[in-house]
Amino acid sequence: MPVRWNISTVALRTIDLGDGSEDVICPKEHIYLDPARGKRYARVSLYNVNKGQRTWALSLIRGVDFTPLDGDAEIINVFEADFTEPRALLDLTPNSLGWNAARLTRIRNRITAKGGNTTGLTGATPLITWLARAGQLLNPAFDPRAYFVAGP
Amino acid sequence: MPVTFEDTFTEASDTALTSHTPAPTGTSWSQVVITGTAVIQVYGATDDIGGSAAGSANGQAVKIAPAPSQYDLDIEYKFTAIDTGTATRRLGALAHMSDATPTNYYRTMHLPTGHASNDTELMEMAGTTKTSLATVDAGIAVNDVFVFKLRSGSQEVTKNGASILTSSDTSITTPGDVGFAIGFVKTGDTGNIATTYRVDNFKVTTISTGITADLSGTQAAQTASADGALAIAGDFAQPQASDTVSGASALSIAAALAITQAGDALAATAQADIAGALAQIQASDTLAATTQADIAGAFAQTQAADGLSAAGALSLAIALAAAQANNSLTSAAQIDLSAVLAQTQEADALSGAAALTIAADSAATQASDTASAGAMLLIGGALDGTQAGDALGSAATLPIAAVLDTAQAADTLDAAAGASAAIADLVATQEDQALAGSAALDIQADAGIAQSGDVLVAGATALIGADLTSTQAADTLSAGAALLTVTSLAATQADQGVSAQLTADIAALFAGAQAGDGLAATATIDSGVGLSAALVATQADNTLSAFVQTRARGRVAMTGTARYPGISAGARQPGMGAVVRKYSINASARQPSINATARQPQT
After folding, report:
1. Beta-carbon contacts of residue B334 (< 8 Å; ≥ 6 apart)
2. Ramachandran angles phi, psi of A132, nearest 5°
3. CB-based contact B207:B226 (threshold 8 Å)
């Protein structure tokens, strides 16, 4: 199953469990079921270390059909791309993936919109560095390689 | 990694877990909270645990005794029966429970495999607020063994040894209690209890100093006390840094480190074995006496600034693709660089009996080493780049056995020294050597470019044994020094300053000019020993002071206007009498022609 890195809103949400519900702090993706599996998306999320500032999360999402996520404006696929393996993607670069300047600008804007610094990031910069610039806004010790979620 | 608690749930009959004595390891199970009447019980028929009854919004959380004393731990359990339903019937392990409420904890939370939510979730509980850290549909089956791994700043869940999720939450920092829960725990952590899911072999292992599993994230700042061992067997995708290993402890890193391994401090007798490839920097290690750092793998990046004290040894056996620099070795310390250095190796400082052995190719600069008395700098392989600016103290040696493609310059060899520099083929400049006392500079092979500007004091010897295709010029020899040039000089050999009682032996062919030497009184240019071969180009403007003697038997071509040789009064010219004033010898002349004021030699 492919994976992607998302930026999405975080809130205390009421999740429908079928035979009841529960209130849980989670990223927006957690409310959706993967249409292809009828289950929630596999996910690991990075939150702000300051609990009072948990307004958005950077999440590694694994699923089959991302249609519900693509249709939610509060959920942003950071790289506009899906990858086959969570860790292998980290060493790729925009240049090696053939991404154009306009796409890089959009990615850059997603990071700066959260207050991130994209100085020095270029098409030759590995994706792990791009992710770190975003995630370290939430946790200065953030290391994208420390995040993994398996497929079923 | 001591097992602090283990229970295989052996009972003759169904027994409430809080009434059961854990075995083989542990003291007791006790209740933390309960909602409703259903409890967790040991099933006597199957020797496992599950809910005693089904109950909506019923549940119990229990904890083990003794509580783990360390934060880092593994909680292991095996599923013996699976709930394939769709209802919200939960169970799982609890860790780092802060108190009896419990207020804060981490939890693995498993749901029936048919539930719309995934069957495994990692959550963090703070008060009555639950945060979903990660979720994955693991596909739980009978005999699946789950391990909930909690480390400082990270969490991981494995199934049958394979990681299924990782996280790096930092909210809870105290060890607290370990426990297990089925169903409803408290407000905010709700659910139902049931009898379907069953679990066996509950085991808690604390992680003290040894780490054997793969770590996909940062492994940093471990502390191993005396006799402790820090063993890291798996791949590190991230830094392993700043470990402190005291006493007789050992730091062993067996696998690949993709990033930095740096700043380790090893006390006496500690040992660091780093067997795998280090793709990045290995730097600034500090090794105390008798410690040893064996770094056997490839270094793609810098290895620099290690400090080794007496008897410490740093062995770098494999290729260093980048700089190895600024090592400091004190007495008896040893650094062996036996493989290829693709980049700079420079500015090492060797004292006492320290030895710096560079056995293989250095593609770039090796320069500015300092070796004090007794120290030895051995460079056995080819140096493609500059080797320059070494300073060798008394009795120090700088043997450079192989080809130097570029400059070897400005070495300083100390006098009483007995310091010596032996240099094989030089295809580039070799110049400005300073040799004191009985120091010796042996240049045994070809120097493709200039060799010049050497300064030799009394007793020093410069031996240039092979062809110099370019200039050898402006050397200065003081009394007692010797410049021996035994083979061909294809270019100019000029402006030697040879003081009294010195000897310049130039034995071979000069294809270019030999000119402008100044020989002081009693100095000799001895054709029988030195200037014995043909000079096919100009030999001019030599100045010989009184009592200087020149004997040239070779074919000498001289220009008409050159004063060669210019001989002061009282000097002797072969076959001539005294009081020669001036000779003017035309080119190709077989006999010198002598001006009127000179006496005609016998012809």
Report:
1. B308, B312, B313, B314, B354, B355, B357
2. -60, -40
3. no
CA A109 to chain centre: 15
Name the residue in chain B with its Cα closest to that of A44: B134
Q: How is residue B328 written in tokens?
A: 């400091």
Q: Closest to A145 (Cβ–Cβ): which among B134, B167, B217? A: B217
Task: Inform me whether the pLDDT recorded for B518 exceeds 90.
Answer: no
Q: Is the pLDDT of residue B358 over 70?
A: no
At residue B208, the pLDDT reads 58
Nearest CB to A145 within list B122, B192, B216? B216
Q: Which amino acid appears at position A54 of this protein?
A: R
More confident residue, B390 or A129: A129
**pLDDT average, residue stretch B313-320:** 36
Give contacts of A143 with chain B, Cβ < 8 Å: 168, 217-218, 238
Tokens of residue A124, six digits: 């030759």
- Predicted confidence band of residue B250 (pLDDT cuts 50, 70, 90): very low
Question: What is the spatial distance between Cα B566 and Cα B564, in angstroms, rounded to a whole number?
Answer: 5
Burial of residue A71 (CB within 10 Å: 0-12, 13-18, 19+) is exposed
Q: How far apart are CA B67 and CA B157, in angstroms?
A: 21
> Mean pLDDT over all residues of chain B?
56
Residue (of B8, B15, B31) closest to B201 by Cα position: B8
What pLDDT score was predicted for residue A85? 84
pLDDT over 60 (residue B352): no
Q: pTM for this structure?
A: 0.53
* Segment 184-213 of chain B within 8 Å of chain A by CB: 188, 190, 192
Sequence-distant (6+) residues with CB within 8 A of B549 are B524, B525, B526, B571, B572
Whether the CB of B370 is below 8 Å from some CB of chain A: the reply is no
Sign of the CA dihedral B90, B92, B96, B100?
positive
For chain A, what percent of residues have pLDDT higher than 70? Answer: 99
| Angle at the Cα of B148 from the Cα atoms of B144 and B150, rounded to 5 degrees | 165
Mean pLDDT within A81-102: 91
| Helix pair A127-135, A101-112: axis angle to 10 deg | 20
The string of pLDDT tens digits covering residues B78-114 is 999 999 999 999 999 999 999 999 999 999 999 999 9
Q: How far apart are CA A104 and CA A94, in angstroms?
A: 8
Pick from B551, B553, B573, B445: nearest CA to B504: B551
The DSSP bridge pattern shows strands B129-136 and B355-358 to be unpaired
Half-sphere exposure for B599 (CA within 13 Å, toward CB): 13
In this structure, are strands B566-567 and B539-540 parallel, antiparallel, or unpaired? unpaired
Q: Which two tokens stand for residue B129?
A: 């607020």
Q: What is the pLDDT of residue A141?
A: 85
pLDDT band, residue A91 (cuts 50/70/90): confident
Q: Give buried/exposed letters for B334-366 (b at 16+ CB in 10 A, else e).
A: bbbbebbbbbbbbbbbbbbbbbbebebbbbbbb
Residue B494's identity, in one-letter code, is: A
Q: pLDDT tens for residues A121-150?
A: 999 999 999 999 999 999 988 989 889 999
* Tokens describing residue B515: 């000119």
User: Per the structure block, which two tokens stand in for A48?
Assistant: 């702000």
β-pairing, B229-232 vs B91-97, is unpaired
Helix (H, G, I), strand (E, B) or coil at A24: strand
Contacts of B546 (CB under 8 A, 6+ apart): B521, B568, B569, B570, B571
Q: Which residue matches tokens 């290993």?
A: B245
| Span B446-472, average pLDDT | 39
DSSP 8-state assignment for residue B208:
S
Tokens of B370: 């300092």
Looking at the predicted complex, does its ipTM rise above 0.95?
yes
Q: What is the pLDDT of residue B1?
A: 62
Contacts A46 to B, Cβ<8 Å: 168
**A98/B189 Cα distance (integer angstroms):** 46
